[in-house]
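Input (structure):
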């Protein structure tokens, strides 16, 4: 019998809730072949505190275990709620092992628990400033551009720009960047989500989508011409639409996904509707990657009260994308 595809689950910042919600998900997902990436002692401790089994065998690519562990040791003891820069390198090693396994074919997808950008930057272990999972995975895989998409409550919201100060957003909205983003979004909606003819709702940058140029000219000079050019290539793009009225049931029914111009234009709406059950997906990578819609929740770490719902959803979506990819192949 052929082995089931293995999903790598990186357990994230060791001082946060990642290890315990990963242990909770491992206890509740026997229907997928799940590989936890992290320190065995840390994960066993958090699992036992939850009353979950930690009897995970070491990962063997040739064995079809429901749950296995790829042990990667901490640099130093991790105390719940207390960040330690000494473990920043450990967090990146988890990501590197998952990426390498996906590219080598050992893993069919990677799912990531939350990490803490601040402590990684404090440690100075990343090559340059560490912006987050999305940007790191793009750099690690040599991908020129990726797109962040969050899914939940029937919505899919992608971002034209991600972790930028608001003052830098207008200059980052360029015809070239917007074109690449929309092409990636259209491609992955087709090939990863199985949507034959995606319809994408595109938000304007300014209030009221610029109010015919009275509240900004980015829509007239950049966004509208870019959408027109891409429509000529066959993309179905609706917009630019005023963001304050885009997220209503009637408008959303017209599209399969929304492209917001910046982080806090699109994500607060989706997270309000689905927080704790939303999923972050990185589009454009040569691998499948999903993640949670929340952070490390240091104040909850070690208490056993953190909700694993978003991580459960991320695992389910990754498994669904893998299965769809397998059927397409």
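Output (sequence):
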């Amino acid at each position: 019998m052929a082995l089931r595809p293995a999903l790598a689950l990186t357990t994230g910042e060791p001082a946060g809730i990642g290890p315990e919600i990963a242990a909770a998900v491992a206890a509740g997902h026997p229907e997928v072949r799940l590989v936890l990436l992290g320190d065995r002692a840390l994960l066993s401790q958090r699992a036992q505190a939850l009353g979950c089994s930690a009897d995970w065998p070491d990962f063997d690519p040739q064995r079809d275990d429901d749950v296995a562990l790829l042990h990667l040791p901490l640099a130093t003891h991790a105390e719940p709620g207390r960040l330690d820069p000494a473990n920043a390198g450990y967090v990146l090693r988890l990501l590197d092992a998952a990426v390498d396994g996906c590219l080598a074919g050992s893993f069919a997808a990677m799912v990531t628990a939350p990490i803490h950008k601040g402590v990684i930057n404090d440690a100075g272990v990343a090559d340059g400033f560490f912006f987050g999972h999305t940007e790191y995975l793009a750099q690690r895989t040599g991908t020129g551009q990726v797109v962040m998409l969050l899914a939940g409550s029937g919505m899919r919201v992608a971002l034209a720009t991600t972790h930028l100060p608001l003052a830098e957003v207008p200059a980052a909205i360029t015809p070239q960047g917007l074109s690449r983003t929309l092409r990636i979004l259209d491609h992955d909606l087709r090939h990863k989500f199985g949507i034959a003819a995606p319809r994408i709702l595109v938000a304007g940058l300014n209030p009221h989508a610029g109010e015919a140029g009275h509240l900004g000219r980015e829509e007239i000079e950049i966004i509208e011409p870019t959408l027109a050019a891409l429509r000529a290539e066959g993309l179905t793009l609706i917009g630019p639409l005023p963001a304050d009225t885009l997220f209503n049931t009637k408008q959303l029914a017209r599209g399969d996904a929304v492209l917001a111009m910046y982080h806090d234009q699109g994500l607060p709406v989706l997270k309000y509707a689905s927080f704790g059950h939303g999923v972050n997906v990185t589009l454009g990578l040569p691998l499948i990657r999903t993640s949670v819609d929340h952070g490390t929740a240091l104040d909850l770490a070690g208490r056993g009260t953190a909700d694993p719902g978003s991580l459960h959803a991320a695992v389910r979506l990754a498994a669904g994308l893998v299965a769809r990819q397998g059927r397409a192949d």
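Notes: The chain has two domains: 1-143+285-329, 145-284. Residues 12 and 113 are 5 Å apart (CA to CA).
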